[in-house]
Give the backbone structure.
Amino acid sequence: MNSDSLPTSSGDRRPAAGGGGSPLLILISAPSGAGKTTVCQQLLAARPEMCRAITCTTRQPRAGEEDGIDYYFLDSENFLKRVQAGNFLEHATVYGNSYGTLKAEVLSKLRHGKDVLLNVDVQGAGAIREQAQADPELRRALVTVFLTPQSLSVLEERLRRRGTDAPAVIQKRLAVARQEIAQWKHFDYLLLSSSIAEDLRRMLVIVEAEKMRDHRSQPPEL
């Protein structure tokens, strides 16, 4: 992608749509196999006014993926320049490819009254929380949720049921998951996963409750 086509930090500010409270930046994190991708898909379907932040990546597009819709596809040099310029809320390298969430991408959507959904790992969540502490606009919008099964044994059963990983890989995932789950106390909400329908119901309750917090609500006229 031409870097000129990416969002910039400038842009007009528009009021939040619908009068239902100022827009939210909903961050969901979870260990591998906990079901956060499914919950995110369900949440986006249930709340059409919510959108996801488009991620930048250095990997090659897969069949059917569109630049600027599925991902922003950047070369390694351009990605590195943006890292050095501090353009990313969070970034990581996974299996040799880099991924990052542009701060300007998120702020642009929030300023246009859109609730924004982020699906990131625990490390990325920590980086975003740190940036939000120094940015009142992000701090006002940010809501963090940690999704996890009720125990490691339940998570292990889910990973085995998927049938995509060898036993040794599953054990490595569980070791990482143990460390990730220990970070739950740094999130605003802990959501112990049960069924898809129940996970979605509770996520919708969280969104509605956060919309009504006093610092996001329009006060009554007196």
